[in-house]
Specification:
The chain has 202 residues and is an alpha/beta fold. The chain contains 8 helices and 6 strands; from the N terminus they run ααβαβαβαβαβαβα.
Amino acid sequence: MPVWEVDTTRWSPWARYFWPPRHEAARLADLVGRPPLIFSHSLFRSHAAWVREVATSRRVPYVVIPHGSLDPWAFQRRRASKYLWMRGIGRAYLQEAAIVMFSSDAERRKAEQTLGFAVRSVVVPWPVGIRPLRPSREDQRDARIQLGLPVDTRVLLYFGRYHSMKQPVETVRAFLDAAPSGVMLVMAGMDGDVSADLLRAE
């Protein structure tokens, strides 16, 4: 499947959030032709307006995947610009989508609370390979050795992006305040608005 990368770093804020440069929009429209279906990920970017226009003009259905963008928590940052985007682009974009795809019932429920209007939606959990609920002692031992962790220490695992929404700093502080003996906290993730270095410092 062909993939085209579009560098938006030199675009104006208007172009990044509301409508891409006309020459870029036309070039991309020529590249995609008339696909049978369009999947559009995330919100609050100009690709949404472009997808809606291309899909409407070519009578192609499109699916919107918000990835948590409609959680009420997300509107605590850049609130004014997000509400402006929703009024200018977002409402029509979401209501005209063939489907808005959420990964959980909770995500859909929170989105409905944020939107205040109805959209056609479905919940499709992202597929995760099923493993035994409890790995064997040998599997546990091998994994710990591979990661350089003590073999006999109880391990608590924090797994996720280091973002303030997920409270990684508060997790570390709660663990340190409890100071459980013989227990280790392992954090696995990637930097968000909180860095791994900051967590190490804590």
